[in-house]
Amino acid sequence: MWAAPKWFARRSRALGCSAKQERRGNRNVAVTASSKPSESEPEVRTAAGVLRGGREAGLAVFRGIPFAEPPVGALRFAAPQPVRSWEGVRPAVAYGPPPPQSSLLGASQDTDGDDWLTLNVWTPEPDPATGLPVMVWIPGGGYAMGNSSLPEYDAGHLAGSGAVVVTLNYRLGIEGFAQIDGAPANRGLLDQVAALRWVRDNIRVFGGDPDRVTVFGQSAGGGSVAALLAMPRAAGLFRRAVAQSVPGTYFSPELAADIAAACAADLGVRPTVSGLSAVPPARLPAAGEAIFAKTVQWRERWGQITHRPIPFAPVVDGDVLPATPWQALADGAARDVGLLVGHTRDEHRLFSLIDGVLGQVTHEQTETALHLLAPGPDGARRYREAFPAATDEELYELVNGDWLFRMPSLHLADAQIAGGGRAHLYELTWSAPGLGGGLGACHGLDVPLVFGNLSSGQPAVLIGDPPSPVAEELSAQIRRAWTAFAAHGDPGWPPYDPDHRLAQLFDTPSMVTAYPEETSRLLWQDHTFPALPLLAR
């Protein structure tokens, strides 16, 4: 999986409200009679009703805004449904509850309510005349964990740079991504589309321009962005996309259904809507955890995802997601959408730390990884020949990082160009000084740098305490690039093309140069990242 270690976790709880209570799913929401808004309590009128937010550091902030009805009861495992309207003024000062999710690696287990499908808005000025670019963040977490209320996703710094920033929640794990008989596939992705439709219909009153929407996300969030680029239901809902550390794992329906059957069997039910609906939502993540813990026993059936245990991912079902992102983009599905895509240099070191093998990878572990993950029947040999001076641990890190994030991200840029679109490529090569400096430019390092939260939120531990002036400047540079791209499609360096392969390297100093991972690129150049199959029945 590609979630944060335990010390990245934060448990958050929605703040209580006073005044008259109105029921929304299982969550109490205070709704008051309308009154004139104050400077410190800005109000906006959305399609569903009036919202009252707050002011923070000169920004108007609205939290816990429902963009769809709670997906429970008759709506369990269904496509998201539009939120019902309300009368009076609904306070929007507390984050909504996180969706049910795995407790592995310390993810939040707050279950205070079922109004999981909410979003949050930071804006310099909630005025329809402002017309600022809009950035919509999709959190990562292996499609099994994720929560927009994490402090690392506080968007104050980004919005302060001149954008309206939206962060959102979506269904995870079995609720959002399991292939279930009688349910639409990719419900988590459909939730994201519903949030983007809400943005289209409502963001103008927050000061945003609905014609300048950029989706951005990291890890599973980056994979979600890639999927949205390939989804007909998402067409026209955003103009630009930033995909950070895109995972290469998308499932065939057969593989996803087999995993769902294993999860349902662990719960003692059938993998159907009626069977799984008998299990309370809070209990479902435990089944995913159980499968996660013993995926190696399914290696002959599930293949590569048992090496870096990945029980959930978008499903290439032929409907919600008609094709993999690489195939869809190469066919021109997103040629009118600007793409900014990239990865970190040392993507896998964080996972080696989580797995307890950092600094002590064995020859046998390296051989297993090479034979399972390297492309082509002679991939292991080709890796060793391509990197003759590499140690076993270096090869282990390279093949894992290439398979899971680095080459999928690069190939997304190549596919976009092949389909007639435009792409900008980057690589984060700055070595994180935190935790003794041993993780290099690891997975997740880009999150605090993009949001500018260098001393709050658990990923800030990678930055070091206190943040250095170098880190502050690099973060400011990345934020300028992301917001400039959202505003007018140019992050500040030349577009990527198959002849020059220019990329922005974020480092000290940063530079524009030919993509530095040329050896890995050549090893993977003929790989297509197809939907992962079920290997045996």
From TrEMBL:
Signal peptide: none annotated. SUPFAM superfamilies: alpha/beta-Hydrolases (SSF53474). This is Carboxylic ester hydrolase. It comes from Planotetraspora thailandica. Residues 18-45 are annotated as: Disordered. Pfam families: COesterase (PF00135). One of its GO terms (molecular function) is hydrolase activity. Keywords: Hydrolase. Its EC number is 3.1.1.-.
